[in-house]
Write a structure and sequence with these properties.
Blueprint (H helix, E strand, L loop, with lengths): L1 H7 L2 H14 L3 H28 L5 H34 L8 H21 L3 H33 L13 H9 L20 H27 L13 H6 L6 H31 L6 H18 L2 H28 L5 H20 L6
Helix pairs in contact: 1-8, 2-3, 2-8, 3-8, 3-12, 4-5, 4-10, 4-11, 4-12, 5-11, 6-8, 6-10, 10-11, 12-13
Length: about 375
Amino acid sequence: MTTPLASIIGSGFLVLGPILTTAYGKFAPLAMCGLCLGAYLFGAAIRFNISELEKHSDASGHLVRGMEILASWTLGFAYIISVAYYLNLFGAFGVSLTPANSPWNAKLLTTAVFAPILYVGWTRGFRSLENMEYLSVTTKLAIIAGLVVGLAAYVIENGSHGEFFFVEPHITAWSAVTLSFGLIVTVQGFETSRYLGAEYDEQTRRLSMQLAQALSAGIYVTYILLITYIFPPDQFELSETAIVDMMKVVAPILPVLLVAAALAAQFSAAVADTSGSGGLVAELTGNRLTPRVGYVVLTAVGLLLTWSANVFEIIAYASRAFAAYYMLQAAIAAVRSARSSGRRMQTGLFVALSILGLLIVVLGRPVES
């Protein structure tokens, strides 16, 4: 459960609060519920595939095997974009409390962080970074717990004076839908359970995903409920680090802790996805391309995105990439389900999810800061 949970509750947690409260206003908790529900349903398709792969590993058929290979390539590409997303947030939070706080300096820090990740992956692989990754995950989850407790205390205090704000949404109708499409990456990470077959059995992997998604949804929705109604409109300017400014009024220590959590979250996620992308490249090419080549490609694409797009645009790109992977997983589940009698409703659900994934790929748009 820890592996998918650590992936789900990561960078997105820190940027999602300001984004949803600014865009959706008093309806931000509903938008959060919609994101979590969509993620859970995509997770259901992947859980179905985990079971089917365990039962019929040698009888998938050429169509399904081809779709699985395409899905794996898509996931590898999504990892490449997500590392750029994580490290750009790392750069933004890294300079947020310093005199050097500017988009240019944030990009410089992001560029600098790519170098040691590429060097370690090229020379020694990522085993030497694993202990740091585990420590950063623990730190991140502890600070997030402290954030939720601090917010709860602040809400209780404000509630006793009736100081709540019900802000009207800035966007409505179709714009609200397409923006949510561009945010799916913020609740992504549950698919990691799909690839733990060497360590855990099918039932454990399915349950790990369900529990991680349920717990993360509870944390996310609680967080958004606490943050939506306690800040007056226009108190802060929307940016990738807006949560730092918001938390200054809750407790003086929270901004420092949140920056520490952000750096820990981005580093651990970047290391994990860099390692995952390199491993997928090697596996899918039969080791004709080594993980080292994957790391070089990842770094090149990451630097290109860093200097050509802002963080919100990279978030939308990453959401589309993961949505393409979920679309393919849902399509695989639909094909497998259609081959079994008496599963029409289930097949219909998977077809609908595949169509939803396609819509996210085509229509998902970035936040406008």
